[in-house]
Amino acid sequence: MASNVNPTVRRRRLGQELRRLRELKGMTAEQVAERLLVSQSKISRLENGRRSISQRDVRDLCGVYEVEDDRVVESLMQMAKDSRQQGWWHAFGDIPYSVYIGLETDAESLRVYEPQIIPGLLQTHQYAEALIAGALPESTPAEIEKRVNVRTRRQDRIQADEAPLRLWAVIDEGALRRIVGNRQLMIEQLEHLVEQSQLPHVTVQVLPFDMGAHPGISGHYAILEFPDASDSSVVYIEGVTSDLYLEKANDVAKYSVMYEHLRAQALNVEQTRQFIERIAKEYAGAN
User: Fold this and answer.
1) Torsions phi, psi for 156 (to 5 deg)
2) pLDDT at site 184
3) N or C: which end of the chain has fewer CB within 10 A?
4) CA–CA distance from 48 to each of 76, 235, 245 (Å)?
5) With a threshold of 0.90, does the pTM exceed it?
6) Contact of 183 with 212, CB cutoff 8 Å
7) 3-class DSSP state of 224
8) pLDDT tens readout for residues 76-89
9) Strand order across the 202-207 sheet
């Protein structure tokens, strides 16, 4: 395994391999939990990569699955050890969506629909600061700055010279109309959005109000895809107190079809740039 693979992805790959071994053995997660005297939820969290896994856990599971090849056991034990290393985001302390950051850091492409705000990877520093302060009114200035710095660091994937993240963003008109901070800040944010949309690996489309009802009406979601074929795509849905990660092929397929409909209903790339520039001029005229 390449040394630059981040710990979140290591956990996912290890979990997938442990699930494969369990299924080859013909056992359910409940049966494994009973054998090891642990909860079924622990087995599920280990398999979906949401929980760090110890070498002891791997050894115990290999024992239950009767893995006789020492090289396989040693390889899985090493994966468990590697998965406990820290990614760059750990330097910022406790980040609620650290699992998502780990996935985004390793993703090859990201498709996102945003109904309320400019996508995080395309935000200016000032917009992100005002947005976070408004969304989390009880946060201290230090906490706000930490979140802004994490968001800025995430944007390195967009600006990378080699293998940048391929981003496709469909943004509802409401995100452009919502004044975060003040009008001058919004002018700068919209100008930045147009500038970023001109990068060869970034596509931005706006879904105007007059399109009416559409498949994204239920809210924000993102679809992450990875360069390694063994890593399944992930649908990410952000929540207030917890996030949802969908990895089943059927779920990913449904959200992918929804996204295709959103892209079809949205303005094309050139129309989108003109639309954003027109709203920026409206803000400038109101100042």
Assistant:
1) -60, -30
2) 95
3) C
4) 15, 13, 9
5) no
6) no
7) strand
8) 888 887 777 666 66
9) 202-207, 166-172, 109-114, 221-225, 234-237, 244-246
